[in-house]
Amino acid sequence: MITLSNLRKLTTEKTDHRRSPVYKKLAPKAKEAVDDVYAQMEKAPGKVLMNFSKVMKDVTKKYKVQIKDIVAYFKKETGITI
I need a surface site. Which of 5, 17, 34, 72 has the fewest CB within 10 A? Predict the structure, then answer.
């Protein structure tokens, strides 16, 4: 039997990353940049590793944020060094 708490764990949403405390501490422009990174990564899920650095550069230019801030977010969120 599936309980409500188990259902919440199974359900993933496009905006799931917005609930994290790390995301909530970001500046507004950095939040927009992170949202755009996630959106672009969803477009090509099979090529995430190949496209990630290019997407990061494009997004940081578009939103005029430092790449180190976005990299720090992903490092804190995932525990993976980029």
Answer: 5
How far CA 41 is from CA of 4, 8, 21, 54, 56, in Å, comes to 29, 23, 21, 11, 10
**Host domain of residue 30:** 18-78
**pTM higher than the cut 0.70:** yes
* 49 within domain boundaries: yes
Backbone φ and ψ of 30, nearest 5°? -65, -35
Counting the structural domains of the chain, the total is 1
Taking CB atoms within 8 Å and a gap of at least 24, the contacts of 10-14 are: 14/38, 14/42
Percent of the chain's residues with pLDDT above 90? 40
